[in-house]
Hints:
By secondary structure, the chain is mainly alpha-helical. It has a single domain (3-102), classed as Tetratricopeptide repeat domain (Serine Threonine Protein Phosphatase 5, Tetratricopeptide repeat, Alpha Horseshoe). The chain is built from 6 helices and no strands. The chain has helices at residues 3-13, 18-31, 34-47, 53-64, 68-85, 88-102. Helix 1 packs antiparallel against helix 2, helix 4 runs antiparallel to helix 5 and helix 4 (53-64) packs parallel to helix 6. The protein is globular, with a radius of gyration of 14 Å.
Amino acid sequence: MNKIERIQDMLKANGKDNFLRHALALEYIKEGNDAEARRLFEEILTDSPEYTGSYYHLGKLLQRGGEKQLALNWFEKGLSAAKLAKDQHAYNELQAAYEDLADE
């Protein structure tokens, strides 16, 4: 059983576990399945906008796919969520990603 199958198996018990869904999305990225990763990140952030870690990865995925404005929008949403959560690490990471992309 590979990592994706193990995570999917764990999700059967709790399909809305953000940690597991986020981990699964990262595994999909490793396999080159950006469409499925994007779906999962968007699902996480729709269900739990306070889950700050997914904003960065979704934004970077969109950036790689050439969707600059959409990536910037997600980084902005993440900045707001991180500020509300008082998550300085996520805020700094998102701000750096936003600034790098905005300057391109």
